[in-house]
Amino acid sequence: MLETSPFLAAMPMRMMLGEQLEIIAAGFLEDWKRAHGLSGRTATAQLKGNVLVITIEDALTNAEVKLADRPQGYLAIRNYLRQLIAQIYVDLAHRIEEALHCSVGASHVDLHPQRNAVIFTIELH
User: Which of 1, 25, 61, 105 is 20 to 30 A from residue 34's alpha carbon, by CA?
Assistant: First the structure.
């Protein structure tokens, strides 16, 4: 899977990929804390082909989780999350581009109320 990512060939040391992903995840978690006001428990970043997936666990308040269990509430919370991520996107994109030696493309935010998780995906070029 990682071998098919063309931008990885530009990375000077492929063994550093795990460390770079940890730095990206930790930075996103810190940005999330500032934007949302709630500290997520953990953040992880995974590279799946040319898509970076960042997940924050325990990212929502109890009220947000409860609201997101209903279809209209889910959409409202997802739109709210999009606004929050828009506030931190520039720093995140810069961090990703520097760490992975790529450019960022389209992104998507989703949530899983059952896991109390926010999942942010971003295409890499």
Answer: 105
Confidence (pTM): 0.83
Task: Give which of 86, 38, 99, 87 is closest to 124, Cα–Cα.
Answer: 99
Do 20 and 99 form a contact (C-beta atoms < 8 A)? yes
Give me the tens of pLDDT residue by residue for the chain, a chain 125 residues long: 444 455 555 555 554 888 999 999 999 999 988 888 876 789 999 999 999 999 999 999 999 999 999 999 999 999 999 999 999 999 999 999 998 999 999 999 999 988 899 999 999 99
Exposed (0-12), middle (13-18) or buried (19+): which is 100, by Cβ within 10 Å? buried
SS3 percent helix, strand, coil of the chain, rounded to 5, is 55, 25, 20
- The DSSP secondary-structure symbol of 43 reads E
- How many other CB atoms sit within 10 Å of the CB of residue 123? 15
